[in-house]
């Protein structure tokens, strides 16, 4: 196999309230706003960890995709409300300290820091759109 120089540049998560999403990713997670594109009253927010300009999350309005049918939009909305549509895994070297700050920021905690049977320690929360965010402790 040929080695390639690849890295993760950005990923997409849906949102249904750009102000709530901006506040959560900026104020609760400490990410910086890199871009806010408005079109037709809808917003695409590009957020990322401070000091990591090469990695971003694009928060997008899922209903804006012209290839999505009305039935699909309904299913997406239902799945977002249940927290089963999308998610992201983040990492920290201090899970307990990070979790303490998240609780102080009134995050929607799904799981407190836990040693998982498969060898990782993590916690879980949801963003305002219902996206699952798991935070793993790494050394």
From TrEMBL:
CDD domains xref list: VOC_like
Domain VOC: 7-138
Protein name, entry field: VOC family protein
Organism per entry: Pseudonocardia abyssalis
Lineage: Bacteria, Bacillati, Actinomycetota, Actinomycetes, Pseudonocardiales
